[in-house]
Amino acid sequence: NGGGSIFTFDIKGGKDAARVFIDNLHLFSLLANVADAKSLVIPTPASTTHSQETLEELEDQGIHQGTIRLSIGTENIEDILDDLKGRVSRLCANPVSPSEAYRIGGITPS
């Protein structure tokens, strides 16, 4: 019950590793807006919502190439947690380079 929340965090490995993380989420929709009823993932704000800012301005705000924002929607909390736990546990269990993660996951970089 209650309103959603926005969580911001960095993925080690920068933009490529952030892309691998995002590409492997199943419940979250890829959008650059927030406060929707469904859960959203906002990829690298440095290249979307904050793309007009300089690197210095981004750094001052704590925004990096691997920064990801999650806007948590109204789906069942267990479904949300299962999606995130599965992705995070795979990242933690297998810390690899982004190119290796693409190969292992069978993902073709875009």
Notes on the protein architecture:
- This protein is α+β, with helices and mostly antiparallel strands.
- It has four helices and four strands.
- Strands 1-4-3-2 form a four-stranded mixed beta sheet.
- It is globular, with a radius of gyration of 14 Å.
Question: Gist?
Answer:
The chain has 110 residues and is of the alpha+beta class. The chain has four helices and four strands.
Which terms summarize this structure?
4-stranded mixed beta sheet; disordered C terminus; 110 residues; alpha+beta
SSE sequence, one letter per element: EHEEHEHH
Shape: globular
**Between the first and last Cα atoms, what is the distance in angstroms?**
37 Å
> Helical stretch count?
4
The average pLDDT value, as a whole number, equals: 74
Spatial ordering of strands, largest sheet: 1-4-3-2
Query: What value does the Rg take, in angstroms?
Result: 14 Å
Main sheet: strands, sense, barrel: 4 strands, mixed
Helical fraction equals 25-40%
Strand content: 5-15%
SSE map:
Layout: E1 6-10, H1 14-23, E2 29-30, E3 40-42, H2 55-60, E4 67-71, H3 77-93, H4 98-105
Parallel strand pairs: 2-3
Antiparallel strand pairs: 1-4, 3-4
